[in-house]
Amino acid sequence: MGGEQPGKALRIAVARPLWKTFLYEAGGYEGIPLQIGQRVRVPFGSGEALGFFLGWEERPKGVALKPIEAVLEDAPALTEEIYALVCFAAKHYRAPLGEALKAALPPGLNVAKPAPAQGALARRRKVQPLPEVGEVSARPTQLSGEQEEVLHTLLGGLEKAGGPEGYQAYLLHGATGSGKTEVYLRLVERALERGLGALVLVPEIALTPQLAGRFWGRFGERVALLHSGMGDGERLFQFRALREGRATIALGVRSAIFAPLQNPGVFIVDEEHDNSFKQEEGLRYNARDLALRRGQSAKALVLLGSATPSLESLYNAETGKMRLLQMRQRIHNRPLPEIQLVDLRACLQPPPSPPPRPCRRRVYPLVKSPRGGMWKLLPSSPPLNPLPKFCRWRVYPLVKSPRGGMWKLLPSSPPLSPLPKFCRW
User: Fold this and answer.
1) Beta strand 394-400 with 362-368: parallel, antiparallel or unpaired?
2) What's the average model confidence in pLDDT over 14-29?
3) pLDDT at site 27
4) Which of 54-63, 118-127, 174-183 is predicted with the least confidence, judged by mean pLDDT?
5) I need a labelling partner for 413 at 20 to 30 A (CA). Which of 169, 203, 329, 425 fits?
6) Any bridge partners for residue 324, and if so which?
7) Cβ(393)–Cβ(369) under 8 Å?
8) Distance between CA 120 and CA 109 in Å, rounded?
9) DSSP assignments along 314-369, one per residue
């Protein structure tokens, strides 16, 4: 792919939010064969930018082209499979190709600089400690009946991986605690025996160490972790381990969908209903949907697992786009947690207000003439009997202290209404 084309121009996708691509000349790299997707540094505007080689084109006549400044790698960091996936994602999710290719790369490769050497990278990498795996990594001696049935179906689909009917999509609807993780482990184990790679996606970084402990305890250094909580050097180290085939299992969050697996055969999306598989910045994508697309392109098995599948996946299973597998019972028939229905409307009711304190003051109506300035104290007994509605006097509460002859005008807005019936003004 690519190669050397003397006398032609290079089509470059710049890692900027621009829809168009640009032509450059090879300059001092005329004799170096380039491959599609290879990283280069190009002059752009008043500075420089990261670019990706897309191919050779006829050089336009009468147009002066800028030469590329540097070729940043000997071979593309992205495999042909990942390059095709990124091109599909850029077109499907309406994103500039240069930005999409940059989003698929780990730190250290998404800049316009040569990547650090592997030896220096290994010395400064910060390894994330894995949790104590203990007994969770031990292989169960016996599976439940539902686990056996589901695993038998999945292994049958795995046997077709790589062939004309290799693409098989399954939706595993398993109750919480039904043993879905053990099914994942045994499916990946069989894939490795056949020389195939495996990608396992989880929705959150917090779940990654827990699942990584089980995978690491079962498969050791063949597991590569990929998530944003790791150091930049460690992420690049793990990315290269997958690219070079030293690791054959990629485990991570949504960005791990672009992991450069060699000969992938299994794609697993755990908790497939979770919205955190959707990337909301830059290249916006749904990692679950891209896993289905990648499995279709690689003729591999795709397994979506959840205790509460999304409506889209249930509909796809109902219409025959994927096969529904179910595991209703928990391991050792453990009971499900007790569920109580709570009427939240009762919880939202305000607490009852305390009864009003008895008022020891007598309130009398004080009326003001609508014609201005004249106040009258109405002889009322008992105080504040209603007045007829047609009375145009404004009434204000006047309070007399029970301890003596002190009167107080209370602020009220609007004035008391209606007025007492005995209003004769």
Assistant:
1) antiparallel
2) 92
3) 84
4) 118-127
5) 425
6) 171
7) yes
8) 15
9) HHHHHTTSSEEEEE-SPGGGPPPPP-----HHHHTSPPPPPPPPPP-SEEEEEEE-
